[in-house]
Amino acid sequence: VSPQQPRIAYLAAIFAGAMWGVSFIAPRALAGEDAFTLSLFRFLFFGGISAVSLSRRRRQLPRFTMRDLGRATLLSALGYSLYYSFLALGVAHAGVAYATLIIGLLPLTILLFSVPRFDARVLAFPLLLVLIGALLIPVDLLRSESAVLGTPLERMGGVIASLAALASWTVFSIWNSNFLKRTPSVSPLDWSSALGVMAGLTAIVFFGLAHPGNAVEIFRHALTREVLLWTGFMGIFGAWVATALWNFASRILPAAVVGQLLVTEMVFGLLFGFLYEARLPTYPEAATMGLLLSGAFFGVRAVNRIVKSVDGRMDRT
After folding, report:
1. Most-buried pick from 49, 107, 126, 202 (CB within 10 A)?
2. pLDDT in tens, 243-297
3. Residues 112 and 120: beta-carbon distance below 8 Å
4. Is 80 in contact with 46 (CB distance < 8 Å)?
5. φ/ψ of residue 276, rounded to 5
6. Measured between alpha carbons, how far is 91 from 169 in angstroms, rounded to an integer?
7. Is the pTM of this model over 0.90?
């Protein structure tokens, strides 16, 4: 790894987070479409451009084994089709801000599963900040009288869906990062494209399962210019390009450090959401933002101390 590569990797992860941030406002802009429909269109675009990329590079591609294809299928379901379906449900019923803030817990959830157990005590303070911030979310949602978000039960369903998205992407991020580090023969772009093709296929399966009797009718009804523009941007830039950038960063930076950079997704998601709704955050939203961002910041510092400590012990041995 050259001295310049970590800097480029940081920039790549930040740009990926910015493009992913658009994903939080699309379900709000396309409120008339259900979560599995948005996921289907987005990942059909992702799968299509991925297939074109793979076909153009077919002579340079490494040989993918059946095990690799199985791993790509599982990862595409966890990190794309299922993740975005849950996220869209969360945005619809918990709102853009709180769904974004729940996904903003990713840096800490990835951190907890990436850092050795005996070092987890140094994360006590960041976790406390996150816990307090997370508790504000359901309290404020239950007090809300917004008809757009539905009944209190539907709002809590939005929180649960957002938590499911959080769990899905946590597992995806760690497994994907570990695979890329163990398999240097596979380029980040090629692996992104392989995941994209599988994401398109799994999105079709989940869409069919969600609409067993009228899938074709719903698909035709959703073929509008607005849906195609939003999902096209998310599928090409917010999935294919962003995944390639993220895979590049994941190969160079430690998984726990890369996880901290996911906070950029939350920041951009909140910024885009408030701009779209033409408003400032409420006091509970502002308090939650401050707590979660602070938790992520102190989590980064904790990880850096842990990494330096481990490197120091390895140098002495």
Report:
1. 107
2. 888 888 878 887 667 766 777 888 888 888 888 888 888 888 888 888 877 877 7
3. yes
4. yes
5. -65, -40
6. 16
7. no
